[in-house]
Amino acid sequence: MKAICFRDIQDVVVQTIPDPQIESPSDAIVRVRMAGLCGSDLHPFYGRERGIEVGTVMGHEFVGEVIEVGERVTKFRTGDRVGAPFTTSCGKCFYCQSGLTSRCIHCEQFGWIEKDYGLHGGQAEYVRVPLADGTLVKMPEGLSDEAALLLGDNLSTGFFGMEMAGLNEDSAVVVVGCGTVGLLAIVSAHWIGLRRVIAVDPDEARCEQARQLGAIAFTDKDAAMAEVRSHTHGRGADAVVELVGLPDAQRTAYELIRPGGTMSVIGCHCTPGFAFSPAEAYGKNLTYRTGRCPARAYMEPLAHRLIASPVDLSWVCTHRFSVDEGVKAYEVFANRKEGCIKAVIEF
């Protein structure tokens, strides 16, 4: 099969590698119809996260068709259209049963192999899915492949970030980072019923997209702070949802938040320390909430929401590539060329 594989920092390559095979009775093999490029893919791409093995198939977002199942798979059969979260989950352990599927005791991440442990990703013609019954989600008719793809990571994560912030309709919330997840967090804010969403991103094109989604968006954090204060009698934001995962964004979030506010951090951080001190957190009575989104727990309820109350998500997947164009896809997505919000690989 053809796959987009990691070779070195800022270096991916399209290779022909062996098709995946059933390795365990609980496995399924999925023929990929669409795979996504995610901001988290850029952490190993740029070397911010290290350890991924050369030759690992990239990507943790995919939707496709089941073509083979192991003998212990009971919930799926060949021909089912399915999506997957970015990590596997058994569906039975303490964490899965409590809704924290991203911390399943058998969890593995798609698109990350390190020291011979882990899984190839979804930017390939086929992907092996361990623990298929607990990991895969059957996609309902009427839901597009694009929406199904977003459920496995970007949309679920954006919704998770808003939910962790603990907001009500009168809350003033700031979204720091208007990449795909940040923009979908704005969509989620309106689902929750928030009336006031302010966004910050240094890229004007991203800010314009945020405005089209109903946010008040700024490229300058000082302008964002002035806007926040004008709506909160000078206090600052009730909550900040930070989606970037880099120190500058974390510091911006800290500065925007009011005393007693909540920082909801869903950007994947790769640095060893915080951009603010314990004393500063103490001084603001800050509530800091963070962690990997339990996407599997969100996928089904959000899929039902999208069917019952459709939302226009056609603006998300701006660039489409074949697997043979995988290197170009990374170049366009990583450098935000041509107004790229999200790039997908179609098979």
Describe the structure.
This protein has 347 residues and is of the alpha/beta class. 30% of the residues lie in helices and 25% in strands. Strands 3, 4, 5, 8, 9, 16 and 17 form a seven-stranded mixed beta sheet that branches. Strands 12-11-10-13-14-15 form a six-stranded parallel beta sheet, with helices on both faces. Helix 9 (247-256) links the parallel strand 13 (237-242) and strand 14. Helix 5 packs across helix 6 (180-192). The longest helix has 14 residues, at 295-308. The model has no long low-confidence stretch (mean pLDDT 96).
Order of SSEs, N→C? EEEHEEHEEEHEHHEHEHEHEHEHEHEHE
**Largest beta-sheet details:** 7 strands, mixed
Low-confidence stretches: none
Structural class: alpha/beta
Number of strands: 17
Structural Rg: 20 Å
Mean pLDDT figure:
96
Write down the overall geometry.
Answer: globular
Strand content: 25-35%
Give the oligomeric state of the chains in this entry, treating copies of one chain as homo and distinct chains as hetero: single chain
DSSP helical segment count: 12
Distance between the termini: 11 Å
**What proportion of the residues is helical, as a percent range?**
25-40%
